[in-house]
Amino acid sequence: MSVCQLGPEEEHILTSFTRRLIKIAADAGAHGGTSTVDVLNTMLFPAIALERRGFVAHVTAAADALFDDDIKIKAKRLFVRDLKARALLNASLDELASPVKSLLADPPIIVQRRDKLLVILRIWPLEGVAHSSEQELQALVTLNLLGPPQDFRLRHDPRRLL
């Protein structure tokens, strides 16, 4: 398996796990007196909350830590430098703003970054109570780093050499 591709099983696991986390956060936000984004912040989950026109409403601290020149918020919109990923992202955001939209997550968008790990973006439409609350949040964008396994990174962490 190459660094920029997930196998079908890995994709299924990531999708299922992420969907469950978002459901937990949305339910807790709707019924627990705290916001969905606050719950995601507590879980250290990198996510961006979008309002109905695709503008950024909230960013978790974990997502903010991933921002750089290749992925950032620009004029209240999520911006990616990678042209192919940007075209896919813009098409997904346009669909999000349309009156007829799917409740299924869009396919993952792989964002190439210069000298850094790839990032998988996925837009998850919010439904039900979570959708109608919190400034009309429409969707969450999740960000996942795609790279070598964690144990490889820990063994090869240059900070360990200090």
Please give the structural blueprint.
Elements: H1 8-31, H2 36-42, E1 47-51, E2 56-59, H3 61-66, E3 71-74, E4 77-80, H4 83-97, E5 109-111, E6 118-125, H5 128-132, E7 137-146, H6 150-155
Antiparallel strand pairs: 1-2, 1-7, 3-4, 5-6, 6-7
Distance between the termini: 32 Å
SSE sequence, one letter per element: HHEEHEEHEEHEH
Mean pLDDT: 76
Strands of the widest sheet, in order across it, are 2-1-7-6-5
Q: What would CATH call the class? A: Alpha Beta
CATH topology: Beta-Lactamase
Which oligomerization state do the chains in this entry correspond to?
Answer: single chain
- Radius of gyration equals 16 Å
Give the number of helices: 6
Large-scale geometry: globular
Helix vs. strand class:
alpha+beta
CATH superfamily: PAS domain
Number of domains: 1
Please describe what this structure looks like:
It is a single chain. The chain has 162 residues and is of the alpha+beta class. The protein has one domain: PAS domain (Beta-Lactamase, 2-Layer Sandwich), CATH 3.30.450. The strands form two sheets. The chain has a five-stranded antiparallel sheet with strand order 2-1-7-6-5, sandwiched between helices. Strands 3-4 form a two-stranded antiparallel sheet. A hairpin with a 6-residue loop joins β5 and β6. The protein is globular, with a radius of gyration of 16 Å. The relative contact order is 0.18.
